[in-house]
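Risk mitigation, structural track. In case the binding assays with 3-isopropylmalic acid fail to produce interpretable data, a predicted complex structure has been prepared as a fallback.
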Amino acid sequence: MKQYKIALLKGDGIGPEIVEQAVKVLDVTAKKFGFAVEYDPADIGGIAIDNYGEPLPQITIDKCKSSDSVLLGAVGGAKWDNQPSGKRPESGLLGIRGALGLFANLRPAVIFEPLKKASPIKDDIIGDNLDIMIVRELTGGIYFGERGRGEDDGMPYAYDTEKYSVYEIERIVRVAFDLAMKRGKKLTSVDKANVLESSRLWRETVNRMAKEYPEVEVNHMYVDNCAMQLVRNPKQFDVIVTSNIFGDILSDEASMISGSIGMLASASLSSGKLGLYEPIHGSAPDIAGKNIANPLATILSVAMMLKYSLGEQQAGQAIENAVSKALETHRTPDIYEDGKIKVSCSEMGDYVCTLI
Ligand code: IPM
Ligand code: MG
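Fallback model:
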């Protein structure tokens, strides 16, 4: 029997409760599809600060590197908000992305048909089977560029730098082109080339690479326009490729089209097989421990893990189908609507398990 080792980074806030549901679903799926999963828990974020004095201890990096894949919940919380820069829970997340070389972040914004009413966007704007793939560069740009503080004539200042090399742009854009080839063959590259030099290099690079993909229809869009187009006419998009910070912002926006930020999964990939899978939402400290969080984004992240890292396509598809079916009748509070059964985080996990 095939055996996979998964590093389990539950993190903070709702992290532990949503990861627990995803593990339940993965166990049931493994049984059904004939493979075995072994879990190796490790600390990241606030909990790691409490236990190790730093948000990303070396042991966590080692455990991730010796696993087939990583499943992560979420990091952060008020308790650690006053930590110095570089010692905040979020630095643990950026650190693991960097340490594992996870430069390609795939954030699919899909709408499950039963959830259409939960979306704040009108039905006719969403259309049928909306399916946008946001490809976000994840280990470069302003998140990782030079930063600092200083003082000019007694006036304190701070700065962060957006810097991209051609190599970094090429490798993320290639991921996006390859995905576009497998999908609707349309690629929108999002930048701010009317202002930023790094965006102009990004655009030139995309145009040069487009010659290698003559079948893909390429267009460029400024990020402000893209933010507007996502709610005006989301159907125009197939694959969107963009920088770290623009992808962060646009993927939160795109998640609302699908009804709730509690629905969006993500895969962070390196040039090898190792991937990290996590919901795009945060640790939601306000609802942590109440068993009301929506575990579906994490469950769908497991589906992505099966498809992208473990080569278990059918098992991944089975989870996606089960989630879709569950949504017809069962809802956590964030996506609740009249006539449905309101369930807790763990009840949703249990129900999805019954549908595998
Ligand atoms: C995300 C999050 C992170 C990011 C934060 C928690 C550092 O917002 O994964 O989108 O900005 O990348
Ligand atoms: Mg974000």
